[in-house]
Design goal:
The complex is a heterodimer of chains A (274) and B (112). Chain A is mostly helical and 274 residues long. Chain A is built from ten helices and no strands. Chain A has one domain (1-265). Chain A is 78% helix and 0% strand. Chain B has 112 residues and is an alpha+beta fold. Chain B is built from one helix and nine strands; from the N terminus they run H-E-E-E-E-E-E-E-E-E. Chain B has a five-stranded mixed sheet, with no helix packed on it. A four-stranded mixed sheet of chain B has the order 2-1-4-7. The chains are: A mainly alpha (274), B alpha+beta (112). Chains A and B meet through helix 3, helix 6 and helix 8 of A and helix 1, strand 6 and strand 7 of B. Bound molecules: copper (II) ion (CU). Copper (II) ion is lined by residues 11, 14, 127, 130 of chain A.
C-alpha cells in the first residue's frame, strides 16, 4: 500500500504543480474554472484512452512510440506555455492599466485560457495515464490487494494534490501587481524544464544525440527522487545528471520565449497621460 | 519544379535512411521481465558503443524500467515490449530496476 501511495504520489505531484501554476497565472479571470477543470477532465479521459492502448503505443515506431508520444505532448505544452507568456506580455500591461479603470473582469476574460487548458490537459494526460496503467495493472494481477491498492492510490493522489494546493496558496500571497510577473517567470522555467524532458525522450529513442552524457552529477547532493528534488524538477526543470542536449533545449527555450516576449510584447511607448 | 520536388523527396528519404541506418547500427540486447524479475539480472555490453535494449515484459502487469545512472525511464505495459537506446557507455556498472516492483526487479549493466 505504501509503495502504491509513493508511486502514485510521484506521478500526481507533477500534474498538481502544473495545475497550481496555471491557476495562479489565471487568477481573477472569470471563466478560468471552466477552462482549467475542463482541461483536467479532458486530460483524465485521454489518460484512460492512452492507458488502454499503452501496449500498442509501446510497440509502435519500432518500440519507441511511447517516447515519441511523450516528446510530442511535452513540446506541445511548451508551445502553449510560450504562447500564453507572449500574449500576456503584450496585453498584461494594458490589462494592469485598465484594471483600475474598467474593472478587470471584462478585459482579462479575453486571455488565451485555451492555451492553459491544453497545458493542464496534457500534464494530466501524461501523468494520469501512468497512474491508470499502474493501478489497473495491480488490480488485474491480484484481486485480493485491490483494497490496499485503492487506499494507496487515494493517499498518493491526496498528498500530491496537497502539495499542489500549498504551492497555489503560496503563489497567491504574492501581491496581485507582482503576480503576473512572477507567474510568467515560473511559466518560462516550467516550459524550459518540459523542453529538456522532451529532449531526453528523443535521446532515449535515439532521434537526438545526447551531446555529452551526464554533463554534471549532483544526485548525491540533491536527488530527483527526494520531494524537493521532484518539486524543483517540475518547477524549474532540475535534472541531477543532464545530457548536453537537455541543457541546450533548456537554454534555447528560455532564449526563444524570452525574445519573442520582447519582440511582440513591447508596445511602443505612448503617452498615457497620468 | 517537378525536379525540385523530387530532389526534396530524395533529401527527406536519404535523411530517413540515415536515421534508420544509425538505428540499426546499434547492437541488440534483450532483457525479459518475468514474475517481476529481470532476466538476465546482469547484462554485459561493450563500452563506448550505442546499445539497443529490447525489454520484453512477459508479465501481465506493467513495469517501469528505470535507471538513474543510465538516465532512462520507460513503461513497459504487460505482455508487450519496447526499445530503449543506451550509451555509448563508459566502462563501469549501471544499475537498473523496475519501479513498480522495486523489491524483486533489480539488475545491472556491465559495460566493458
Ligand atoms: Cu511521470
Amino acid at each position: 500500500m505504501l509503495a502504491t501511495a509513493i508511486i502514485v504520489f510521484r506521478e500526481v505531484i507533477e500534474a498538481a504543480l502544473v495545475i497550481s501554476i496555471v491557476m495562479a497565472a489565471s487568477r481573477g479571470v472569470p471563466a478560468r474554472g471552466w477552462w482549467i477543470w475542463g482541461g483536467v477532465g479532458g486530460g483524465l479521459i485521454a489518460a484512460c484512452v492512452v492507458a488502454v492502448f499503452a501496449d500498442t503505443l509501446a510497440e509502435a515506431a519500432s518500440g519507441v512510440g511511447q517516447d515519441l508520444f511523450n516528446a510530442a505532448v511535452l513540446f506541445t505544452a511548451v508551445a502553449m506555455l510560450g504562447w500564453h507568456n507572449i500574449w500576456m506580455q503584450r496585453h498584461g500591461r494594458e490589462l494592469a492599466r485598465e484594471m483600475n479603470q474598467v474593472g478587470k473582469a471584462v478585459v482579462s476574460g479575453e486571455r488565451p485560457l485555451y492555451a492553459l487548458a491544453i497545458v493542464v490537459g496534457l500534464a494530466v494526460l501524461r501523468e494520469g495515464s501512468e497512474v491508470v496503467l499502474f493501478l489497473y495493472g495491480i488490480a488485474s494481477a491480484d484481486e485480493s490487494s485491490a483494497g490496499s491498492m485503492l487506499t494507496g492510490g487515494v493517499i498518493g493522489i491526496s498528498f500530491g494534490t496537497a502539495v499542489g494546493l500549498a504551492i497555489y496558496y503560496g503563489l497567491l500571497r504574492i501581491p496581485t501587481r507582482h503576480l503576473f510577473r512572477a507567474t510568467s517567470w515560473l511559466i518560462l522555467f516550467l516550459a524550459a524544464g518540459l523542453a529538456s524532458q522532451g529532449a531526453a525522450y528523443l535521446v532515449q529513442a535515439d532521434l537526438l544525440p545526447p551531446l555529452g552524457r551526464e554533463v554534471w552529477n549532483t544526485s548525491d547532493w540533491l536527488s530527483e527522487d527526494s520531494l524537493i528534488g521532484q518539486i524543483l524538477h517540475t518547477l524549474v526543470g532540475y535534472v541531477s545528471r543532464p545530457d548536453g542536449v537537455q541543457i541546450l533545449f533548456y537554454l534555447a527555450t528560455i532564449a526563444i520565449i524570452a525574445s519573442l516576449m520582447r519582440l511582440f510584447g513591447d508596445e511602443p511607448a505612448r503617452p498615457v497621460g497620468h | 519544379m517537378q525536379n525540385r520536388i523530387y530532389s526534396g523527396r530524395f533529401i527527406v528519404l536519404s535523411a530517413l535512411l540515415m536515421v534508420c541506418g544509425s538505428v540499426s547500427a546499434a547492437e541488440n540486447y534483450t532483457l525479459t521481465i518475468k514474475e517481476h524479475r529481470f532476466e538476465p539480472e546482469e547484462l554485459e555490453v561493450p563500452a563506448g558503443r550505442k546499445i539497443k535494449l529490447i525489454v520484453k515484459n512477459e508479465d501481465s502487469t506493467p513495469e517501469e524500467f528505470e535507471s538513474r545512472s543510465l538516465k532512462r525511464e520507460k513503461i513497459i505495459p504487460g505482455k508487450s515490449q519496447a526499445t530503449i537506446f543506451v550509451g555509448p557507455l563508459d566502462p563501469g556498472t549501471y544499475d537498473f530496476f523496475g519501479e513498480f516492483h522495486e523489491e524483486s526487479a533489480k539488475g545491472r549493466i556491465l559495460a566493458k
